[in-house]
């Protein structure tokens, strides 16, 4: 089995970098060997995912066309041609919202869900053999209003901004983070495959939930709040309940920072801090229902937008957006040891696969 690192790039494009790239990864040394890019330029692909069979890559992109005179987003699919070392464009579909920023598939990969930051709408698209169909359903921000108190939904500085979507097959629910309304929204597909909002988890005003992860038992999820740089533990069940929250920053930190990505590995919950430029390590005790901090590791770069671990948890890559680099580390608990680095302009999403 070989390891491969997929990454996006928002700038400095050339013949070997058209916005989406793949490298062969030596996790022992952190060395990257260039493998492929896409067959057309993708100017702003902020997030992508890879199908279970590792044959298709789906990505969102922004400002790819014009809709009623306004910048528009799109979702695209690429065939990963391992023999030709090429990401071959299959097709794309317009997203009728601004700022598409995240996407996910359902369990059998027949539905694709897209979050839009600019308009706050979540969209659903049918998928067949890696080909994306036209939009089949959407969930508008107005649907959230009946679940929130008037105070929470006050119009002074509140605007829906969907930032993250994840479908959980075991729960048959789609969870998405609303960065602007300070909540996580839970919806389902009805018998006609239309999105229906079921519930909303409200977070403190100004916290801005950005991303979340689920523990293996699916009895808790952990939510990273961008603006407050906090980590929350949410108990799942018939009712969703926030049971604890802690800061992701040292008590004496005085600079400006925002949290970005969250992952699980090695018994830790990990989150990246942009500004403090670190990876924060935490643990959750299910008996006491308390979170505890377990230190920080430097990202060795500026603005760690995303990071990824190998399946065995012994290797981590950090994408530092503003210093235009990938930093490779070996992982031992909450300790990171640098192995290597590579230049890559404006990387904000990384994925590691084995095949």
User: Regarding CATH, which class of the domain at 41-198?
Assistant: Mainly Beta
CATH homologous superfamily classification of the domain at 41-198: YVTN repeat-like/Quinoprotein amine dehydrogenase
In CATH terms, what is the fold-level topology of the domain at 41-198? Answer: Methylamine Dehydrogenase, Chain H
Rg from Cα: 19 Å
The biggest sheet, with number of strands, parallel, antiparallel or mixed sense and barrel status, is: 5 strands, antiparallel
Mean pLDDT, to the nearest integer, reads: 93
Helix/sheet category: mainly beta
Element-by-element helix/strand order: EEEEEEEEEEEEEEEEEEEEEEEEEEEEE
CATH architecture of the domain at 41-198: 7 Propeller
DSSP helical segment count: 0
Helix content: under 10%
End-to-end gap: 5 Å
Instruction: Give the tally of β-strands.
Output: 29
Percentage beta strand: over 45%
Low-confidence stretches: 65-69
Shape: globular
Describe it:
There is one protein chain. The chain is an all-beta fold and 355 residues long. It has a domain at 41-198: 7 Propeller (Methylamine Dehydrogenase, Chain H). 0% of the residues lie in helices and 57% in strands. The chain contains no helices and 29 strands. Strands 8, 9, 10, 11 and 12 form a 5-stranded antiparallel sheet that branches. β9 and β10 form a beta hairpin. The protein is globular. The model is unreliable at 65-69 (pLDDT under 50).
Describe the SSE topology.
Blueprint (H helix, E strand, L loop, with lengths): L2 E6 L11 E7 L4 E7 L9 E4 L5 E12 L2 E12 L4 E10 L4 E6 L5 E6 L5 E7 L2 E2 L4 E3 L22 E7 L4 E6 L4 E7 L5 E8 L6 E6 L5 E6 L4 E6 L5 E7 L10 E8 L2 E7 L3 E8 L4 E9 L5 E6 L5 E6 L4 E8 L2 E9 L6 E5 L1
Antiparallel strand pairs: 1-2, 1-29, 2-3, 4-5, 5-6, 6-7, 8-9, 9-10, 10-11, 10-12, 13-14, 14-15, 15-16, 17-18, 18-19, 19-20, 21-22, 22-23, 23-24, 25-26, 26-27, 27-28
